[in-house]
Amino acid sequence: MSITKNIFGTMPDGQEVYVYSLDNGRGLSAEIITYGGIVKNLYVNDANGKKTDVVLGRDTLEAYLHNDGYLGALIGRHANRIAKGKFNLNGREYTVGTNEGNNSLHGGYKGFDKKVWEANAVDGAEPSLILILLSPDGEEGFPGYLKVKVVYTLTKNNALKIEYNALTNEDTVVNLTNHTYFNLAGHAGGTIDNQILQINSSFYTPNDIECMPTGEVLSVTGTPFDFRSPKPMGQDISADFEQIKMFGGYDHNFALEGRGYRLAATAQCVENGITMEVYTDKPAMQLYTSNALTRGIYKDGAEYDAHQAYCLETQYFPNAMEHSHYPSPILRKNEEYKFTTEYRFIVK
């Protein structure tokens, strides 16, 4: 329907960064930058026809270069955490960047969120942006040369669809996701306490004090982690429950029901009627309620603070190489990593 391309800024090494604006002509539009593959803006028409930007973000490339919180970014090679930055593969121990205390988080010191991606726009009834990244063997300590392709598409049914593909010349581990922060009341819409969430999951993985899964897979029954029926996100976000108190809210992995491409979660803002459905073929999803979001001034002069957004990061289980009962993130030589996640918007 419509795609435009403009300069967004210049990297310290002189490399240009572009912002692509996509519009499906049906009330959904997005702005995506080639640095980090970041979803900068995502506009949805609410029940009154008001154009609402439902993702948190920043205004300038300079601000994104110091993007604590990974706002809107593509994450890789390995989303979430790897304990002590170590894993064993084919009888060999690998050590990757430990950028969060003793552990590796979201790909290490310079993960895919800090790379400038090659971009190619494809216009049409479902406009898309193809992003390509080549990660050399040994980058951040990960084995194998990895070619990554991520395609953002605005579909006819008002979804932001993200297709993840990767190929390697050597056995490696891959766990790609997107770290967009959603607030369906608008990016400056205040806390998420009254927004409704349902997750199709009966089990979650509890964390140790470093937010690393312990290896247990526990039932959500009778806990604040039971989102099988819709409930306000604020209902249990401050519950007197150890797993909540340790992190000031939710920062946990949920094992999703079923297999294949299916509905994983539904979020809703009752005030403006915007509903978001999350579909994926990934085995799990991290719910993060922006507990550690740095208070300050962000996009459009808005002030953000903790619990002003939530991330629904489809993924493999964190630290999966440590626990054989978790789905494996190993990508074998000559096999294809191929997953899709879709954030579909409906106005009720």
3D shape: globular
| Distance linking N and C termini | 25 Å
Low-confidence stretches: none
Strand coverage percent:
35-45%
Helix count from the secondary structure assignment: 2
Structural account:
This protein has helices spanning 61-64, 242-245; strands spanning 2-10, 16-23, 28-33, 38-45, 51-53, 74-75, 81-82, 86-89, 92-95, 104-105, 118-122, 128-135, 146-154, 159-168, 172-173, 177-178, 196-199, 203-205, 218-219, 231-232, 251-255, 262-268, 274-280, 284-288, 296-297, 303-304, 311-315, 330-331, 336-347. It has 348 residues and is an all-beta fold. The strands form eight sheets. Strands 11-12-13-14-29-23-22-17-20 form a nine-stranded antiparallel beta sheet, with no helix packed on it. It has a five-stranded antiparallel beta sheet with strand order 1-2-3-4-5, with no helix packed on it. It has a five-stranded antiparallel beta sheet with strand order 19-18-21-24-27, with no helix packed on it. A hairpin with a 2-residue loop joins strand 8 and strand 9. The chain is globular and about 60 Å long. The model has no long low-confidence stretch (mean pLDDT 97).
